[in-house]
Design a protein that fits this description.
Structural class: alpha/beta
Protein name: dTTP/UTP pyrophosphatase
Number of helices: 7
Radius of gyration: 17 Å
Number of domains: 1
CATH class: Alpha Beta
Pfam family, one: Maf
GO molecular function, one term: nucleoside triphosphate diphosphatase activity
Shape: globular
Family: Belongs to the Maf family. YhdE subfamily.
Number of strands: 7
Strand content: 15-25%
CATH architecture: Alpha-Beta Complex
Helix content: 25-40%
Order of helices and strands: EHEHEEHEEHEHHH
Keywords: Cytoplasm, Hydrolase, Nucleotide metabolism
Length: 202
């Protein structure tokens, strides 16, 4: 049994491309960065803590499977070393998008796979570069009204309307969306889950 420790519909959709059946078990954690914590370290720590929190919830379930494998991921938008979280207001969104406007930033996505007892743990961090065109305040306000940026790190979704701001990107598109498919498939194989075999019913 594979357990996805995430409430993100985007991660669920992406994982379904690799694995037919899995359980979704999101767990709330404190996502506050530590003092002077590097963005890369923060993103990996978030994935590990999400996995641990999901394991804790899973263990008390009556149908808990001792052979369960857990997958957790975290994505952060980073500019000049600063981690941009999810906007809490239009002003917050405007502040973020102004910083990203006309500039390059990084989208860092982490992945953690582990077993129920946390004896076997594999983590990966994928760093992507995204270049934005210039964005006007009118566009920021109009974009906010769509509702799309409300729950997105950095206040935009590359898989949605936010793509109109993206001049170019290098790296893994699926990682920017929320789940790096290449790395996920490689890591799943280490736990005996082979996506192509799974999907071909073999």
């Amino acid at each position: 049994m594979l357990v996805l420790a995430s409430a993100s519909p985007r991660r669920k959709e992406l994982l379904s491309l690799l694995v037919k059946e899995f359980k979704v078990l999101p767990a709330d954690i404190d996502e506050t960065p530590h003092h002077q914590e590097l963005a890369k370290d923060y993103v990996v720590r978030m994935a590990v803590e999400k996995a641990k929190a999901a394991i804790k919830k899973y263990k008390v379930q009556a149908d808990a499977d001792a052979s369960a494998i857990f997958m957790a991921s975290d994505t952060s938008v980073v500019i000049e070393g600063d981690i941009l979280g999810k906007p809490t207001s239009l002003d917050d969104s405007r502040s973020m998008l102004r910083r990203l406007s006309g500039r390059s930033h990084q989208v860092i996505t982490s992945l953690c796979l582990c077993d129920l007892e946390f004896d076997q743990v594999v983590t990966k961090c994928i760093i992507n570069d995204v270049l934005f065109r210039d964005i006007s305040d009118v566009e920021v306000a109009q974009y906010w009204k769509t509702g799309e940026p409300h729950d997105k790190a950095g206040s935009y979704a590359i898989q949605g309307l936010g793509a109109v701001f993206v001049r170019s990107m290098s790296g893994s598109y699926s990682a920017v969306v929320g789940l790096p498919l290449y790395e996920a498939a490689q890591m799943l194989a280490q736990f005996g889950i082979h996506p192509l075999e799974e999907l071909s019913h073999e």
